[in-house]
Write a structure and sequence with these properties.
The chain has 272 residues and is an alpha/beta fold. The chain folds into 2 domains: 198 residues, Vaccinia Virus protein VP39 (Rossmann fold, 3-Layer(aba) Sandwich); 59 residues, rRNA adenine dimethylase, C-terminal domain (Helicase, Ruva Protein, domain 3). Helices cover 36% and strands 19% of the residues. The chain contains 12 helices and 9 strands. It has a 7-stranded mixed sheet with strand order 4-3-2-5-6-9-7, sandwiched between helices. The chain has a two-stranded antiparallel ribbon with strand order 1-8. The longest helix has 13 residues. The protein starts with 6 loop residues before the first helix and ends with a helix.
Length: 272
């Protein structure tokens, strides 16, 4: 393995500082980074997409694990540090300067790929929902291993009846298995964010038959858009929804947070 300088020295040498506007918080604990890189299993020879590598902390952990990494970085200040990593691991790191929200990840990768990222806070949820969107399934990605604010991570893995349960949980779990893989203390970051963080890990599950992603999105948007109201009120504007509740034997006096992912899928299937 190449002898790399500590990440703090890399940041100092390139005059880097975390940008609040870009939602950056640098993770420098290399043992912790190695643990994150190990979550999806063996990476040797596998294609990995990383979003927002910054100075390259997680990137070097992925490269040390043998991954072939494509890193998308919007902040041009970080490119020289990433170029140093590319030189240290010839042929294993491709860096693309650009906005991850504006790029076609499937076209860029051109093969099945795992996603590992300490996502910038300001775009994390949008990227996550995009990876789970669309009618085609299974997706090109084989797993998602993502750092979020702990509150968002809990919303992704929440179960019906939990305080955090909502659209994000249904969207994550209707055709993927999701688990909270690791909690990360705020002190591990530079600068320390105001909130704690956590890593979630998702693997695609078989596509539930007969369900349109677009219809499920409409159902969850209506149901959780007025989550304090009973379903008979929150879903009444969605054509056919109340009839679907009756057909499925779902009490219209229930509220959205009490319905399981399977029940939401059943409503969407009836309307598809």
């Amino acid at each position: 393995m190449p002898d790399l300088p500590p990440l703090r020295e890399v940041i100092a040498a390139h005059g880097l500082s975390a940008s609040r506007a870009l939602g950056q918080n640098f993770l420098l604990d290399e043992q912790l980074l190695a643990r994150i890189a190990a979550i999806p299993g063996e990476l040797s020879g596998r294609a990995v997409l990383e979003i927002g590598p910054g100075p390259g902390g997680l990137t070097r952990a992925l490269l040390r694990a043998g991954a072939r990494v494509t890193a998308i970085e919007r902040d041009a200040r970080c490119l020289p540090a990433l170029a140093d990593l590319s030189n240290a691991f010839p042929g294993h790191l491709r860096v693309i300067e650009g906005d991850a929200l504006a790029l076609d990840h499937v076209a860029i990768m051109g093969e099945p790929f795992a996603v590992l990222a300490n996502l910038p806070y300001n775009i994390g949820t949008e990227l996550f929902t995009r990876w789970l969107s669309g009618e085609d399934w299974p997706p090109a990605w084989t797993s998602l291993t993502l750092m979020f604010q702990q509150e968002v991570a809990r919303r992704i893995v929440a179960q019906a009846g939990d305080a955090e349960y909502g659209r994000l949980a249904v969207w994550a779990q209707w055709r993927a298995t999701a688990r909270l893989a690791m909690k990360v203390h705020r002190s591990a970051f530079t600068p320390p964010p105001k909130v704690m963080s956590a890593v979630v890990h998702l693997v695609p599950a078989p596509m539930p038959p007969g369900i349109s992603a677009r219809i499920l999105e409409q159902v969850t948007q209506a149901a959780f858009g007025q989550r304090r109201k009973m379903l008979r009120q929150s879903l009444k504007a969605l054509p056919g929804a109340l009839a679907a509740l009756e057909t499925l034997g779902i009490d219209p006096q229930r509220r959205a947070e009490t319905l399981s992912v399977v029940e939401f899928g059943g409503i969407a299937r009836a309307l598809t």
